[in-house]
Amino acid sequence: MSSQNSANLVATQDNKMSKENRHLADFNPNFWGDIFLSSLAEMVCFLSVNILYAKAHLQYEELKQQVRRMLVISTDKPYQNLDIIDAIQPLGVAYHFEKEIEDALHIIYHHHCNNAQIDDDLYIASVRFRLLREPGFNVCCGKFKESLISDVKGMLELYEVAHFQLHEETILEEALAFTMFHLKLAETTMDYPLSTQIANALQQPLRKSLPRLVARSYIPICEGYATVDKNLMKFAKLDFDMVQHLHKEELSKMNR
């Protein structure tokens, strides 16, 4: 019995000595951090998001090329792209196609100079004037007939045009007052989306707006028009979402 107690005492003393002689290792922090501690669900979610983003980016590039092809203008029909250029700008995607838009506007400008007597309706004349005046083409405001107040879309474009007036262009000063008065009346009688477009323009004309804010309000308006190209709408939505995602990433990095 005494021999067993002696053996236990020796074992206990050896155990204490081994604990006292044990050294603590001062290892450097793990290079990988806690990445391998993430749950399987988190990893699957991360991979799924990246796969979806890759698919969205592929669709984004395909749609961009389709819109680019739409902007290839024919010299025989220079005004065919007025509507598409007019839609691209407020949708917030014009920065992707600056060269194509510039080339198209040069063709439209030269055609207009060589065919100055063409009697366009108010809408076409106003869109053409605004698209050419904004980048600095030398275009004359001409005369706008007050008898065309029944053309509400044309009057809305004329209202936007009036904000591009230069010094002593009294005709545009008169057009601004005239269109503002009649658009306020039309706003209550027009159906959606034109009524909303008029309300937004009266509150914040394109000339005084920020492109991203315009795109945010204009995308749902464009969806209400059957004439707007479906691929252009898809591209505008994807572009808006991707730019928003980029801004969020930048803000996240700044807050670290």
From TrEMBL:
Species of provenance: Gossypium barbadense (Sea Island cotton)
Annotated Terpene synthase N-terminal domain residues: 32-202
Pfam families assigned to the protein according to its UniProt record, in alphabetical order: Terpene_synth
GO BP of this protein: terpenoid biosynthetic process
Signal peptide: none
Designated name of the protein: Terpene synthase N-terminal domain-containing protein
GO MF: terpene synthase activity
